[in-house]
Amino acid sequence: MLADFCVRLALGMIACLLLLSPAASARPPQGQRPLAHPNFFRTQCLTVLALAVGSLLWLWGSAEPALLGCLAGAAALAFLGSVTWSVERSPGAVSLIVLTVALLGVAVGLREGDWGRIVGAIGSAALLGAAVSAMLMGHSYLIAPAMSLVPLFRLLGALFVALALRAAIDGWALLQWTGDHSLANLKGGPLLWLPVRWLVGLLAPLVLGWMAWQTARIRSTQSATGILYVVVIFCFLGELTGQLLRPDGLAW
Fold first, then answer.
1. Which tens digits make up the pLDDT trace of 183-230?
2. What is the pTM of this model?
3. CB 150 within 8 A of CB 140
């Protein structure tokens, strides 16, 4: 379960970099500031590297070679990305991000198997990646308060889209389950975890995300970052709870 969580988080975080105009950040036009500082891209790559290596170690000896190869390749590309974003004009930076996204996407596909679970995993990756990336971007304003708010709003927008996608995916799974069962049949673990999944993992991040958006609008980035820390915790709890519900068919 933790290996799957790490792969999804890594995929979501590296994919979110594509929302931040990485080409313009690697080679900003003369006299213009990049949309996001290269150090942010470097931090994301290092985090993805750690997540990919962690997943590789958890799955070592139990997963098929193709999956292990994808994770190892993604870790290597993330490492190269961190090095690239450390040098001037970051040569090949965008290509490394795209290739890392591709390898992690293949890893998710190999891990999940069928299309329903793959779609659920992609929704989970989008939510986890958007939440963590928005929080880290908010933290960047603590050391660079004059930075443009555009990247933060882009990531918050991605968070809302991911929440809608994740709710639709798990709502469909729940609807499919109720077609063959009655909610009155819920007992034990599913009865305990299903409300947590929806209230803590989806509704609470939506409300808190809206609060973060409103505080960012008045440029209270420190408050927005604090709210996003809570959003990340709730998203983590929600996605881990969703994995507990998957064997019962109540979540994807």
1. 656 666 677 788 899 999 999 999 999 999 999 999 999 999 999 999
2. 0.93
3. no
